Amino acid sequence: MRLRTLAMRLSKLHPHPCNSVELEQYSTEGDLAARWLSDIAAFGDLIEGCSVVDLGTGNGVLGLGALLMGASSATLIEVDEEACAACANNAADLGLEDRVEIVQAEVDEDTLAKSSADLVITNPPWGKQLERADRPFLEAILSAGVTAHIMHNAGAGHIQSIFEAAGWGVERYGEADLALPAAYAHHSRERGRTRAAFWRLTPP
User: Fold this and answer.
1) Which secondary-structure segment (H or E) carries 41?
2) d(Cα 9, Cα 155) in Å, to the nearest integer?
3) Could you read off the pLDDT tens digit of each residue along the chain, which spans 204 residues?
4) Are 46 and 119 in contact, with CB atoms under 8 Å apart?
5) Helix crossing, 3-11 with 30-42: angle to 10°?
6) Using only C-alpha atoms, what is the Rg of the chain?
7) From edge to edge, which strands make up the β-sheet containing 148-153?
8) Which residue range is the domain that position 182 belongs to?
9) DSSP bridge partners of 101
């Protein structure tokens, strides 16, 4: 699928309901999601017929986008009930419901312990509201033992140290501006931006 077509389809998805500031819930824009998935495919990690897990999926934009790019199946894991409903609606709108498993659950170190996925993609909470909120996501990736791509705060220095200490390969390969709509009462501006970075994590 062409990048522009993918971006257009992902931009039309039902948005993340953004109910919880504590969970740091924001929608990933369709254009950004499409570009990131294209980068993942360029590494050879998102290939025809692969199985994908999207941790903290929100409205499903990354996992569903992976399916549109040729993945055979996607497991979308999300704790928020309304976000799971948005995932289901989006999967149905795209005609992908038969290739999607939506799991309403908190992410912890055991979430992927028995997973047979080929690839993990995640934009976890960055820990702005709750310190170390991203740790269960990082621990889940470590337990899965498969290649993962993560979007996180561009200033995050702990990702490299955690994974290199476990013997993983770590490659930081890009940055982008992440839109922050004024979804919560504490936001003073209609729309803001923050700098995100992307890492490729490969098991030993």
Assistant:
1) helix 30-42
2) 31
3) 899 999 999 999 998 776 555 545 577 899 999 999 999 999 999 999 999 999 999 999 999 999 999 999 999 999 999 999 999 999 999 999 999 999 999 999 999 988 999 999 999 988 766 788 899 999 999 999 999 999 999 999 999 999 999 999 999 999 999 876 555 444 444 557 889 999 999 999
4) yes
5) 140
6) 16
7) 100-104, 73-78, 51-55, 119-122, 148-153, 191-202, 169-181
8) 3-12+24-202
9) 75
99 token code pair: 């290739």
What is the count of structural domains for the chain? 1
Is residue 154 in a domain? yes
The total of other beta-carbon atoms located within 10 Å of residue 192's CB is 13
Residue 17 domain flag: no
Q: Is residue 76 part of a domain?
A: yes
Rounded to whole angstroms, what are the CA distances from 34 to 26, 41, 59, 83, 127? 16, 11, 14, 20, 25
Q: 3-class SS at 94?
A: helix
Contact partners, residue 132, CB within 8 Å, separation at least 6: none
Conformation bin of residue 149: beta by default, left when phi > 0, alpha when psi is -120 to 50: beta
pTM above 0.90, yes or no: yes
Kindly report the CA angle at 191 between 188 and 192, in degrees rounded to 5?
Answer: 90
Number of H helices, E strands in the chain: 6, 7
Distance from the first to the final alpha carbon of the chain: 32
Residue 140 is part of a domain; what is its CATH number?
Answer: 3.40.50.150
User: Is residue 18 included in any domain, yes or no?
Assistant: no
